[in-house]
Amino acid sequence: MSNPIYALILAGGSGERFWPLSRRNRPKQLLRLVSERTLLEKTIARLEGLVPSDRILILTNVDQEKAVRDLLKAFPKQNIIAEPAKRDTAAAVALGAGWIAGRNHAATMLVLPADHVIVDRAAFQDTMRTAAAAAEETGALVIIGIKPTWACPGFGYIEQGEQVRLHGEGKIAVHRVVRFREKPNVDLAESFLRKGNFRWNAGMFVWSVPSVLSEFNRHAPELADFISQVRSSKDLDKTLCERFEKLPRNSFDYAIMEKAERVLVVEASFDWDDVGSWWTVARYFKKDEHGNAANSALTALDSSDNIIFNEGETTIALLGVHNLIIIRTDDAILICHRHQAEKIKNLVGKLPPELQ
Length: 356
Description:
This protein is an alpha/beta fold. It has helices at about 40-45, 65-70, 90-100, 120-140, 185-195, 210-220, 220-230, 235-245, 250-255, 280, 345-350, and strands at about 5-10, 55-60, 80-85, 110-115, 140-145, 155-165, 175-180, 200-210, 265, 285, 295, 300, 305-310, 315-320, 325-330, 335. It is built from eleven helices and 16 strands. The chain has a five-stranded mixed beta barrel. Strands 10-11-13-15-16 form a five-stranded mixed beta sheet, with no helix packed on it. Helix 3 crosses helix 6, helix 3 (about 90-100) runs parallel beside helix 7 and helix 6 (about 210-220) crosses helix 7 (about 220-230).
């Protein structure tokens, strides 16, 4: 690879699924769910040796900007930007592309969510280098595909086609993308697994800046114009205040990826978990012989298959309860049936504003 790599880390989010630990100003990526470091800190650390911090842009929003800056005191302050309004991922990627293009118009760009769990950093970087090489050689937009482990109806899917041969090809295969498939029902997801050539869309992308700018020009001219303004802006805060809220509210997949002519998929060689609910986080907790998973000491009698997260030092004891999620923070306690976990976000809107 001859071009420097830059990274855009998407660190917004609403902070609803992990209430009461998460709040509007403290979404999933700012939580210490599975280790002593937040998911955002782990995302940045994963890039060490691949992308230096001065080439990483962290994009958050006004509700979470202070928490992000307080967390990342050693990170370049000018490389943390807060979106002044919610405009979905197409506008976010356009902002990142403009910021990077203003620094190096020939750069290779990674787009990474800040809220995934990936343990194998070496394998992650190998995959990203393969994707960067493919993007640079072919001029295609490259997406990272996750090999499905079950028929999940909550993810979008990528249908991959024939393998693409590259110069200096390594161990990680690169395929053409046949098409993107929206979140399927369970039956359709099971058919995808049986066919074997479908991958989960985890929202991780790689491309050269000229290639993605070309696609914006072709398919989203309003966003392309915004990119040009960001790229040449002498006062980025002013440009964002004047323009960002007026941008269309579209996902990047819909605005660009599903319409782009040349799209490749690189299968992730690393472990991956989007930790989308307390169910998935519980996999990282210590579990007793009755299936009770807890992040701290727990006393349980005639109780099974409960999930416990205790932010403080209070002792939690269970007697005769099953299949519960119990989350304790300094100012709130959640008790719900574990099969109702997806509805926690519906509960948040009914809470007092100071607890949302």
